[in-house]
């Protein structure tokens, strides 16, 4: 499987460094970023090809791994799917827009392509998907990040946001994709609180779900990526695991 990466920042760097040797028949070969130097850097370390025009990548790959921004999903995903290519979307916040999501699903169905959205920086999506088979009464997400992860310098705790996931992803498009992942997994606009917390040094996500199945609570304490403290290592790891699983015949988990 030939893979192209759209967005050559923190997540892409972790992915490429994990795939330096070809694994599971996956060859990450093409790189596109609107900062060509970033694409060239990844191409150099992986013996791949950096492209100036995204079409020069899409035409040659089986799958595009988006790790850029919600705007890049709006801009490029439709065309990727129309060309019959699969896409892994990291900027899941973009998919909270139901119109865009439905359009992408329609085009994917028509062109026999697939959209994958990894669980990213959060745990519990397996459980919430299963729980959504019954009635779900409550889903709360509380995200705590150190000030530097949110570009702040607080000395005291501050609630930055409290409200629905749909608004959260508009206000903080590169910080709370996890809220979109949760919402889409259970088809509900979940309640979100984002807290700037100078007492934590990790990106912490707590989820509480209650429904017909009973209840569960998860807490993820994520180490931030070195080059982008907003983003947790687990998000990149989840993309790697998903990518590897695409060529496997045994699927574990929901
Ligand atoms: N699903 C999840 O749980 C998570 C998702 N994310 C999202 O994944 C995406 C990537 O995250 P990082 O690697 O940490 O970001 P980053 O900022 O380190 O890297 C993004 C790269 O994409 C490039 N880029 C941005 N917009 C572009 C466009 N329209 N066209 C071409 N290149 C573009 C930038 O130049 C940059 O090199 C972000 O949208 C982030 O919010 C991040 C963490 C968790
Ligand atoms: O990486 C994280 O911990 C969460 C994050 O930035 C996001 O959901 O966009």
Automatic annotation (TrEMBL):
<dbReference type="GO" id="GO:0009435">
    <property type="term" value="P:NAD+ biosynthetic process"/>
</dbReference>
<dbReference type="InterPro" id="IPR002811">
    <property type="entry name" value="Asp_DH"/>
</dbReference>
<dbReference type="GO" id="GO:0050661">
    <property type="term" value="F:NADP binding"/>
</dbReference>
<dbReference type="GO" id="GO:0033735">
    <property type="term" value="F:aspartate dehydrogenase [NAD(P)+] activity"/>
</dbReference>
<feature type="domain" description="Aspartate dehydrogenase">
    <location>
        <begin position="155"/>
        <end position="240"/>
    </location>
</feature>
<keyword id="KW-0521">NADP</keyword>
<feature type="binding site">
    <location>
        <position position="177"/>
    </location>
    <ligand>
        <name>NAD(+)</name>
    </ligand>
</feature>
<feature type="domain" description="Aspartate/homoserine dehydrogenase NAD-binding">
    <location>
        <begin position="7"/>
        <end position="117"/>
    </location>
</feature>
<protein>
    <recommendedName>
        <fullName>L-aspartate dehydrogenase</fullName>
        <ecNumber>1.4.1.21</ecNumber>
    </recommendedName>
</protein>
<keyword id="KW-0520">NAD</keyword>
<comment type="similarity">
    <text>Belongs to the L-aspartate dehydrogenase family.</text>
</comment>
<dbReference type="GO" id="GO:0051287">
    <property type="term" value="F:NAD binding"/>
</dbReference>
<comment type="function">
    <text>Specifically catalyzes the NAD or NADP-dependent dehydrogenation of L-aspartate to iminoaspartate.</text>
</comment>
<dbReference type="Pfam" id="PF03447">
    <property type="entry name" value="NAD_binding_3"/>
</dbReference>
<feature type="binding site">
    <location>
        <position position="121"/>
    </location>
    <ligand>
        <name>NAD(+)</name>
    </ligand>
</feature>
<keyword id="KW-0662">Pyridine nucleotide biosynthesis</keyword>
<dbReference type="InterPro" id="IPR020626">
    <property type="entry name" value="Asp_DH_prok"/>
</dbReference>
<keyword id="KW-0560">Oxidoreductase</keyword>
<dbReference type="InterPro" id="IPR022487">
    <property type="entry name" value="Asp_DH_arc"/>
</dbReference>
<dbReference type="InterPro" id="IPR036291">
    <property type="entry name" value="NAD(P)-bd_dom_sf"/>
</dbReference>
<dbReference type="InterPro" id="IPR005106">
    <property type="entry name" value="Asp/hSer_DH_NAD-bd"/>
</dbReference>
<dbReference type="InterPro" id="IPR011182">
    <property type="entry name" value="L-Asp_DH"/>
</dbReference>
<feature type="active site">
    <location>
        <position position="205"/>
    </location>
</feature>
<dbReference type="Pfam" id="PF01958">
    <property type="entry name" value="Asp_DH_C"/>
</dbReference>
<comment type="pathway">
    <text>Cofactor biosynthesis; NAD(+) biosynthesis; iminoaspartate from L-aspartate (dehydrogenase route): step 1/1.</text>
</comment>
<dbReference type="GO" id="GO:0016639">
    <property type="term" value="F:oxidoreductase activity, acting on the CH-NH2 group of donors, NAD or NADP as acceptor"/>
</dbReference>
